[in-house]
Amino acid sequence: MRTARTRRFLMCPPAHYRITYSINPWMDPSKPVDPALALFQWEDLRERYRGLGHTVEVLDALPGLPDMVFAANGATVIDGRVLGARFANPERAAEAPAHLAWFRARGYAEIREPEHVNEGEGDFVVTSSWILAGQGFRSSPLGHDEAQEFFRRPVISLELTDPRFYHLDTALAVLDDTADEVMYYPGAFSPGSRAVLERLFPQALLATEEDAVAFGLNAVSDGANVLLPRAATGLLAPLRARGFTPVPLDMSELHKAGGSVKCCSLELRD
Ligand code: ARG
Predict the structure, then answer these.
(1) Which member of 54, 99, 255, 263 is catalytic?
(2) Pocket of ligand 1 (CB under 6 A)
(3) Cα(206)–Cα(223) distance, rounded to whole angstroms?
(4) Residue 56 needs a FRET pair 20 to 30 A away by CA distance; which of 166, 194, 260, 269 works?
(5) 155, 129, 153, 154: which is closest to 141 by C-alpha?
(6) How many domains does the chain have?
(7) Which GO terms describe its biological process (predicted)?
(8) Structural domain of 31
(9) Within a domain: 87
(10) What is the CATH classification number for the domain harbouring 246?
């Protein structure tokens, strides 16, 4: 039997979500999103969290920042310490101060405005022993060092090599954060990083390319329930075999910008 731990998430509604530019291979401004459907899917995710007993805090969306719905990129919070983001692309730069302001207004005492590029939980994935950190497309290796110093936890740098999986959280998800249990798509990583993952996580659930392109690794687990896009059908049986309860969700509109469940959810580890 798996045990869930109650979580707190910060989410930002897709009030201004559009595809107006392209900063990853999924984004095509000529293929518009359906704003009403995007909002419906986002609300469904929020209500699923609440239905499972989790808390969802809401950050107000700002006009002119169409990717702000991907709240996971705005910061990283561990032990109540907040490392702000610094975006690689100018299109998203103004999201970072909006997140910092939210944390300041809520009285978080340890807040760091980063010197180096890091896209929050897009590239920082927290397991029980380590912070796994993606580089290659967005976050800088210097940002990894900065996170290690700030969080006082070991940071393992991993190199992403496939532009479709430009953030670590598109290629790897934590299933149990008390036991270093993860799932990932090996094809997203350099040979050296793949070997590191095999060494650290010999029991990992390995995803197929098909489930990875369906954004099945952009999943959130509370230790028992795994919320993931419903298109990643190949992950359902292996998750059940491990004792997890998959919670499939339709995230098709968010997928158009290269995001899904995890990208919309910033975990507040207070
Ligand atoms: N369009 C956004 C970008 O390219 C998507 C971000 C997805 N977020 C994530 N945590 N992977 O920056």
Answers:
(1) 263
(2) 23-24, 27, 67, 70, 72-73, 92, 122, 167, 169-170, 257-259, 263
(3) 18
(4) 166
(5) 155
(6) 1
(7) arginine metabolic process; citrulline metabolic process; positive regulation of nitric oxide biosynthetic process
(8) 8-267
(9) yes
(10) 3.75.10.10
Residue 3 placed within a domain:
no
Question: For residue range 84-140, what is the model confidence (pLDDT) as tens digits?
Answer: 999 999 999 999 999 999 999 999 999 999 999 999 999 999 999 999 999 999 999
User: Model-level pTM greater than 0.90?
Assistant: yes
- Whether 54 sits among the annotated catalytic residues: the reply is no
Radius of gyration of the chain (CA): 17
Q: Ligand 1 centre and the CA of 70: distance in Å?
A: 6
Look at ligand 1, atom 9, and give the residue with the nearest C-alpha: 263
Q: What is the full DSSP assignment across 144-180?
A: HHHHHHHHTS-EEEEEB--GGG-SGGGTEEEEETTTT
- The two structure tokens encoding residue 197: 């993952």
Domain membership of residue 71 (yes or no) is yes
Q: In what order do the strands lie in the sheet with 111-112?
A: 75-78, 81-84, 111-112
- ipTM of predicted complex: 0.97
Per-residue buried b or exposed e for 126-156, using 16+ beta carbons within 10 Å of the residue's own CB:
bbeeebbbbbbbbbbeebbebbbebbeeebb
* Catalytic residue selected from 54, 99, 167, 255: 167
pLDDT tens figures, 158-194: 999 999 999 999 999 999 999 999 999 999 999 999 9
Alpha-carbon gap, residue 166 to 84, rounded angstroms? 19
Tell which atom from ligand 1 comes closest to the C-alpha of 87.
12
Closest ligand 1 atom to 170 CA = 11
Q: Establish if 75 belongs to a structural domain.
A: yes
